[in-house]
Amino acid sequence: MSYEDDETPWDVLTAFAWTGLTLGEKVMLFPAPGLPESEVLDRLDAWGPAAAAARRRGQIVLSSMRSLILPHQQFTPERQWEGITTETERAVREGYKGFRAYIDMHWVADLGADIETMIYRETHADHLFHAVPYSEICAYDRRAFSGEVLDAMARAHPTNLLERLGSLHTEHADGMVRLAGDADLATRTEFTAALKTAMARTPVAGRLVVILTDLHFLSAGCAADLLLVAGGAVEERRMEVRCDAFQARTLRRLGANSIRRLMLLEKAEEKAGEKRVEPSAGMSEGRPPESTGEGPKSTGEGPSEGPAQGRQR
Questions:
Q1: Residue 71: is the preceding peptide bond cis (ω within 30°)?
Q2: Which residues of 204-236 are buried (b: 16+ CB within 10 A; e: fewer)?
Q3: Do residues 140 and 153 make contact, with C-beta atoms less than 8 angstroms apart?
Q4: What global pTM score does this model have?
């Protein structure tokens, strides 16, 4: 993840920590060097009293990159990898289901490490995740790293996080729009505008691919707006929606199967224990809709925000 002010990172840090507690994992936080420990603890405690109990039993640990590589003083990727592996193995021995670390990348300047060494670490760390239950967030302050470095790190990591919980991210490409984050009352205007813009850019008799599988939440109101955009498409523009089972069920209940120019491609749910593979542009998923018919006649607004389909990650 990346951020550009001192307030933004806290939502992701605390959500990451609390998710670890919920899953029975050990959590180690590496905040920005110089940040008072009391501030980190106050932020965690604001989510509920369980954080203090977790610290007392050792499930949440505050640390630093300096401490992780001890007794060494100079950073090397190998020393960091060894420290993380040791902590992961210790967490498993202690009975936790896994180990997760939130690492603020201000440690690079604090330890006097050069950018090339940091980039090497970030691009050669896959082995940490192969055989052990380990997860990690690397948090980059955009005020401290160049745009070139930030772009390279965005490409190097398998997942890029949104800065804030509850936000919506859109990506446009030729014939495609991908939406990630939350599509709800707070982001409904942005969600609908992205669909209308993408549809307007779609050539006559062309097809617009809408990828919803990266959404954490899809409200009934946003789903209804999607159907209105699809049903109101001029000429022979078609919409193909790639979605998960929850989203497909919501869209069908709202009348998706009655829209002639709309096709739902539902992503098959993984079996228990299988690794989830995030979709990318151009990936075909799921199955076609069960039936088709004429589009809706109504030109009114979609329903208000109400019960909606979503999923947890």
A1: yes
A2: eeeebbbbbbbbbbbbbbbbbbbbbbbbebeee
A3: yes
A4: 0.71
Rounded alpha-carbon distances, angstroms, from residue 225 to 71, 109, 302: 58, 47, 6
Comparing C-alpha atoms, which of 152, 139, 168, 148 is closest to residue 40?
139
Q: Residues 6 or more apart from 269 whose CB is under 8 A from it?
A: 244, 245
pLDDT attached to residue 310? 37
Secondary structure class of 211 (helix, strand, coil) = strand
Give the β-pairing of 238-243 and 207-218: parallel
What ranges make up the beta strands (E) of 191-290? 207-218, 238-243, 262-266
- As a whole number of angstroms, the distance between CA 54 and CA 305 comes to 37
Contacts of 122 (CB under 8 A, 6+ apart): 138, 153, 156, 157
* Burial (CB count within 10 angstroms: exposed 0-12, middle 13-18, buried 19+), residue 34: exposed
CB 98 within 8 A of CB 21: no
DSSP state of 270: P
Residue 269's pLDDT is what? 52
CA distance 182 to 172: 17
Judged against a pLDDT cut of 50, whether residue 104 lies above it is answered with yes
Shortest CA distance to 64 belongs to which of 46, 90, 50, 83?
83
* Helix orientation angle between 147-156 and 115-123, rounded to the nearest 10 degrees: 20
Q: How confident is the model at residue 312 (pLDDT cuts 50, 70, 90)?
A: very low
Quote the CA–CA distance of 297 and 126 in Å, as a whole number: 52
